[in-house]
Amino acid sequence: MRVVLDTNTVVSGLLWDGAPRRLIDAAIDKKIGLYSSQALVTELVGCLLRKKFSRRLTEERLSAPALVERYAMLAELVTPAVISPAVAGDPDDDAVLACAVAATADLIVSGDSDLCNLKSYQRIPIVTAADALARIGDAEVSPETTPPE
């Protein structure tokens, strides 16, 4: 199963336990394939460098650059598709959609209300991390699986 995580989901998964972390663990265990783009990795850098995360990084003895490098090695980077703006006023959300289209993703995972309100984009479901875990289940799923036509 091919999955694109929005940046907030990635941050949650890298810094805390919970459903987003379990998705990252599923990628480590090769149950899913994670896909990202340079724009999303750049956004991740900016997020992790925010002051509000510095205490958590210190507590966990982590560094933003090390986390970004680890995630960039875990996720396959794709060149985003060219899409028409779909989320009014938030190009970061459009970057997630463009990445998902380019990756021929099976799921987009987000907690962002603007994205979740879309429910799907070009037939790619947009779900929460908990819903993604339910869809993935415990079965081994090859990251190379392509979506049905």
What does this structure look like?
The protein has 149 residues and is of the alpha/beta class. The protein contains 8 helices and 6 strands. It has a 6-stranded mixed beta sheet, sandwiched between helices. Strand 5 and strand 6 form a beta hairpin. Helix 1 (7-15) packs across helix 2 and helix 2 (19-28) crosses helix 8. It is globular, with a radius of gyration of 14 Å. It starts with a strand and ends in a 13-residue tail after the last helix.
Q: What's the gist of this structure?
A:
With 149 residues, the chain is α/β, with parallel strands linked by helices.
Strand order of the largest sheet: 3-2-1-4-6-5
Under the CATH scheme, the architecture is: 3-Layer(aba) Sandwich
Q: End-to-end span in angstroms?
A: 14 Å
CATH class: Alpha Beta
Broad shape? globular
The portion of residues forming beta strands comes to 5-15%
Radius of gyration: 14 Å
Q: What is the ordering of alpha helices and beta strands? A: EHHEHHHEHEHEEH
The overall pLDDT, averaged over residues, is 90
Quaternary? single chain
How many β strands by DSSP?
6
- Our count of domains comes out at 1
Task: Please mark out the parts with pLDDT under 50 across 5 or more consecutive residues, or reply none.
Answer: 138-149
The name CATH uses for the topology is Rossmann fold
The H-level CATH homologous superfamily, spelled out, is 5'-nuclease
Q: Sheet with the most strands? A: 6 strands, mixed
